[in-house]
Amino acid sequence: MQHTSFHHSLIALMMLCLPAATPATAQVQEMEVNIFEMMKQTDKAVVVTVHTGSQDPFVLERYRRFNSMIKQVYPNCEHREAWTSREMISACDAMKASTLHTPDELLNLLAKDGYTHVLLQSSCLANDTEMQSLRHVVDNTSGMFKQIRLGEPLLSSTEDYEDVVNATTHAFGNSKTASLIILDEGEGDDNAQLALLDYVFKDKGLSTWYVGTTDGYPSFDSLIRRLKHDKMKKVRLIPFSFNASSTTISQSISTWAEELKKAGCKVTAESKNVCDLDEIITIMRNHCKHAEEYRKLTAKEMQFIRK
């Protein structure tokens, strides 16, 4: 009984330290506790970057820059990589190249090697199936470590959407030509997030900017209807993908261009990818930093708050 009372008093004291809202997850109650500050001398920390996985040279360069920016923030930590693409892992195994691990495989190995504090950051763009699967893996392995935390994907808070819009329009410039951002990632289950990105463009008065996806919503048909309604005859296509290969992106651009030409539009395409911008990787790096500094409250702690 005294232990329970002490626990509730401790949580009550913790509540006083909670920020009113946090940048990356404003709807989730968090507590400002740095993952590394309470480490003992015998503890071991590691920072893990998680990518879908591709052998495309352009994607590999994107991964290299992503990893490099994360390492700059944590120069004194061990660094590891995990991959979610079984196809890529199998290909590397067949070539007898370096051993690659999925997130769950890597976390199990880290636990066996005595790592106690793990900080992960994914290159996912939205809270799609890939990201949800990673959350599940982290939750299932949390008992193996003293602390394990996962940074949010690119598009998480309202501020993230605004930062993406600002970076994109600054890099590609605003014009009277319709600028159509093509997102070629995920499995079409991040519709609301893409629709929100489209809305933020409009909310900022950028009426000639549109967002579409090859699998989901906003779709070909919905965007063509909007372009016709807005009397847009010239369209430039801008790829927005972190993990898709250059071949996949080229195919998507060609498909969109063909459909738009059928609708009577003149089409051009940008060779530069939105995800090649340093500002985009910086947003994800900041999410990793946020996960380092803030701990999400447990279900018991949240239950105490509701009481």
Annotate the secondary structure layout:
Elements: H1 2-15, E1 30-32, E2 45-51, H2 57-73, E3 78-83, H3 86-94, H4 103-112, E4 117-122, H5 129-141, E5 147-150, H6 158-172, E6 178-183, H7 191-203, E7 209-213, H8 220-229, E8 234-240, H9 246-262, E9 266-269, H10 278-293, E10 294-296, H11 299-306
Parallel strand pairs: 2-3, 2-4, 4-5, 6-7, 6-8, 8-9
Antiparallel strand pairs: 1-10
Helix pairs in contact: 2-10, 4-5
Please explain how this structure is put together:
- The protein has helices at residues 2-15, 57-73, 86-94, 103-112, 129-141, 158-172, 191-203, 220-229, 246-262, 278-293, 299-306; strands at 30-32, 45-51, 78-83, 117-122, 147-150, 178-183, 209-213, 234-240, 266-269, 294-296.
- The strands form three sheets. Strands 3-2-4-5 form a four-stranded parallel β-sheet, with helices on both faces. It has a four-stranded parallel β-sheet with strand order 7-6-8-9.
- It has eleven helices and ten strands.
Summarize the structure.
With 307 residues, the chain is an alpha/beta fold. 46% of the residues lie in helices and 17% in strands.
Strand order in space, largest sheet: 3-2-4-5
The whole-number mean of residue pLDDT values reads 85
Give the helices and strands as they follow along the chain. Answer: HEEHEHHEHEHEHEHEHEHEH
Look at the helices and sheets and give the structural class: alpha/beta
Query: How many angstroms does the end-to-end distance come to?
Result: 18 Å
**Helix proportion:** 40-55%
How many individual helices?
A: 11
The radius of gyration over CA amounts to 22 Å
What is the number of beta strands?
10
Shape descriptor:
elongated
Strand fraction equals: 15-25%
**Largest beta-sheet details:** 4 strands, parallel
Low-confidence stretches: 1-26
